[in-house]
Amino acid sequence: MFRLERNEQLGLTVLKEKDFNRALTFDLCLECKDSRFQTLLNQFLPDFNKSSTKNRIHSTKDKKTLEQILLNLIRCYQMDPDCFLIFAQGNEHYITDRYNPLKITRQKSIDLKEWLADRKYLKGINGRWSKVTTGMISRVRPTIKLKTIFISHKVEQFKITSHPLNEVIFLKDIKKSKHTPAKYINYKRSSPEANNSRRVIKKYNELMDKSVITYNGKQLPVSYFHIHRVFNNKDWQQGGRYYGGFQQMSKNPKKVKKNGVKDRRKLKINNNSVIEYDYSRIHPTMLYDKIGMPLNKDPYVPKGYKKRYRNFIKAVFNIMINCLNKKQVHGAATKEAEDDDYSKLNIDSAFITKLISDLELTHTNIKQFFYSGEGLKLQYLDSLVATKVIENFVSQSRAIIPYHDSFIVEAMHGADLKQVMQD
C-alpha cells in the first residue's frame, strides 16, 4: 500500500493544503517518442515480471498502463520534483472508451501503483479531498529512489505530449449530488461548434509542442500547456471552458502556486517576454448587458468593503450565479474562504452571510440571475470568445496561453491580441 506522509510527531514532512493542491491529474493518454524513455521503462519490466501474478506485465495493454503511470510521474517531476500526481479512484475515470482510447484499466493501475509503492518508488496520500478535482482521490509522488532513476535517465529532457488518440472535448452529466462529481458522458456526437473547437485544440496542442516556454530560466514541460474543453450538464451550450495543466495549477491567474508562474515578468515564450490581457468583469458585464444597462462600477467591491476583499467577493459573486440556492452558495463560499489566498482576511460564517446579502442589494437589477445556474451559460459565451482568439493565433502559428477570459502571448504580439479581443 502507499506510504502515508503523516505529521511531525512521526518524523515525516508536514504538508499544508497548498502542497496537496500542487498536483496534476492522471492523464490516460500521454506519449513520449524519446528512446531514452523506453530504456527507463525496460528497467522496470524484469522486476514486474518476477512479482505476483496480479503485478506481472501480461500484455501490451498492461505495458501501456505502466507507461502511462511513468509518463505521468515524469510529467509531474518536470514541473516540480515535489509535485503530486492525482489518481481518481472511481471506475468512471477509466470505463468510457472516448476518454480512455488506450483502454487503461483501473485495477491494473492500482496494482502497479501499489507495486511501485511497496518497492519504495512512490509515497502518497490516500483519500484526501482535492480542490483541483472534485472528490476523494489519492496523490502520489516519487521517492528519492525513483528521483535518482529519473536523474540518471535525464527525464527533464523528455518531451511528453498528448497521444494522437487523445480526446479533447469532454461532456459532463448533470451533477446528482454535492458529494459526488458529475460523471463524464461517453457521447456519440458533439455539436458543430464543439467539433470545430476540437480541430482548433488539436492544432493548438501541436503548436505548443513546438514552442519553448520558460519560467525564471527553467523550461516548462510542453504537456503542461496542452488544453481540452469541458461542457456541463449534458448540454453543449453550458460551460465549454478550456482547461489543462496550466489552468489546473492556476486557480488565480494573477497568483499561480509554487510550481506555476508567480511573476509574469519571468515567463517567456520562445525566449521572448510576454504580455497578458483579459476581459475585465466579463460575467457581470454580460448580465447587465442582458437587461440593457451599462455597468459603471466595480461589481466586486460593494459599498463598505475594502479592496483587499475584492478577489474573494468576485469568487462569491460567481458562486451566486452558478449555484441554485443560498445554502449552496454559503457552503461553496465557506470552502472558498479556506483557500490560503484568503487566510489573512479572517472570513467567517457571519461575514459570508452579510456579503451574500450585500451583493444582492448592490446588484438588485440583476438579482434574477442569482441562484439560477446562469454562470455555466455565461461560461459558454466566454468560451466562444476564447475559441475565436485561440483560433486566430493558431492560424498564424503564434503561441498563446489561455486562462478562461485572459490570454498570454509574446509581447511583440500584444497589439494583435488586443485587437482580436476587441473585434
Report on the architecture of this protein.
This protein is an alpha+beta fold and 423 residues long. Helices cover 39% and strands 16% of the residues. It is built from 14 helices and 15 strands. It has helices spanning 17-20, 35-49, 60-79, 92-95, 106-118, 144-152, 192-209, 245-249, 282-290, 310-322, 326-337, 349-362, 374-395, 414-422, and strands at 23-25, 30-32, 84-88, 122-129, 136-142, 160-162, 169-171, 213-215, 218-219, 227-231, 239-244, 267-269, 272-278, 400-403, 406-410. The strands form 4 sheets. It has a 6-stranded antiparallel beta sheet. It has a 4-stranded mixed beta sheet with strand order 1-3-5-4. It has a 3-stranded mixed beta sheet with strand order 7-10-11. A hairpin with a 2-residue loop joins strand 14 and strand 15. Helix 3 (60-79) packs across helix 5, helix 10 (310-322) runs antiparallel to helix 11 (326-337) and helix 11 crosses helix 12 (349-362). The protein is globular, with a radius of gyration of 22 Å. Residues 1-17, 129-135 and 252-261 have low confidence and may be disordered.
